[in-house]
């Protein structure tokens, strides 16, 4: 008997869920501070306007950037990033399901990691995602969503999902932020606004998550790879 497709029902529930604590973090986006982003200018100039927007990660990154941009739920201003914030989907969502939620709800994040540990990107890494419901948090933090394995009240996240999210976070600390991950720069969503995200399960394993991020940071820092925006785009396979 085929498994039940929970994506559609979880998308609907996620859209209707109150008090998510996400969004732009301000009612007047015209008053956002000017960009303080100065990194990677030479790389962008050399790559030219046709360069792929996804990060040059060492694993595939599905590209949903243009589709998310079409929703209007992102601010295309770049800022210096100093932290990573982890979220949960509040649902057992696919990458497409996450986009479907954000087409309706005024929210976004830079990345999503699904139940299989696969990565998708929705917002360019230095841009202002509508992720944490706090202006400074949206300016300064890279937001990574994670698919849930179970729903309320525990909102568990599978080990494959959170470990791949931790690895992705470690890459960003090494390649974008340039600081070792610690309690002062690896956050859950509830650090920024009134929400239970990333859920009680993730709260219980924070120390384990931080250790995994630090291990990934050490790996990528030692690899001496360079952030370049001209990585090849990964085709998105639609499964509906």
Would you spell out the secondary-structure blueprint of this structure?
Blueprint: H1 7-16, H2 41-47, E1 61-63, H3 65-69, E2 74-78, E3 83-86, H4 95-104, E4 111-113, E5 119-121, E6 127-129, H5 135-140, E7 141-146, H6 159-177, E8 186-188, H7 200-204, H8 206-223
Parallel strand pairs: 1-5, 3-7, 3-8, 4-7
Antiparallel strand pairs: 2-6, 4-5
Helix pairs in contact: 1-4, 6-8
Polypeptide structure, described:
By secondary structure, the chain is an alpha/beta fold. It is globular and about 45 Å long. The chain has helices at residues 7-16, 41-47, 65-69, 95-104, 135-140, 159-177, 200-204, 206-223; strands spanning 61-63, 74-78, 83-86, 111-113, 119-121, 127-129, 141-146, 186-188. The two termini are 18 Å apart. α1 runs parallel beside α4 and α6 (159-177) crosses α8. A hairpin with a 5-residue loop joins β4 and β5 (119-121). The protein has a 6-stranded mixed beta sheet. The longest helix has 19 residues, at 159-177. Helix content is 33%, strand content 12%. The protein has one domain (7-14, 37-223): 3-Layer(aba) Sandwich (Lysozyme-like), CATH 3.40.80.
């Amino acid at each position: 008997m085929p498994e039940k497709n929970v994506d559609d029902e979880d998308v609907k529930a996620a859209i209707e869920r109150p008090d998510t604590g996400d969004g732009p973090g301000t009612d007047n986006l015209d008053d956002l501070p000017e960009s303080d982003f100065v990194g990677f200018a030479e790389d962008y100039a050399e790559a030219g306007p046709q360069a792929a927007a996804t990060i040059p990660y060492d694993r595939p990154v599905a590209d949903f950037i243009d589709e998310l941009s079409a929703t209007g739920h992102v601010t295309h201003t770049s800022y210096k990033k100093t932290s990573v914030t982890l979220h949960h989907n509040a649902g057992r969502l696919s990458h497409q399901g996450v986009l479907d939620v954000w087409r309706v709800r005024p929210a976004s994040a830079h990345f999503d990691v699904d139940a299989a540990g696969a990565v998708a990107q929705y917002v360019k890494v230095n841009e202002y995602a509508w992720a944490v419901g706090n202006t400074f948090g949206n300016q300064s933090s890279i937001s990574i969503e994670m698919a849930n394995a179970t729903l309320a009240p525990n909102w568990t996240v599978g080990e494959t999902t959170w470990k791949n999210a931790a690895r992705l976070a470690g890459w960003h600390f090494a390649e974008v932020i340039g600081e070792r991950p610690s309690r002062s720069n690896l956050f859950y969503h509830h650090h920024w606004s009134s929400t239970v995200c990333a859920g009680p399960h993730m709260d219980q394993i924070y120390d384990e998550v931080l250790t995994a991020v630090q291990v990934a940071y050490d790996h990528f820092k030692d690899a001496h790879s360079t952030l370049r925006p001209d990585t090849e785009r990964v085709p998105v396979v639609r499964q509906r």
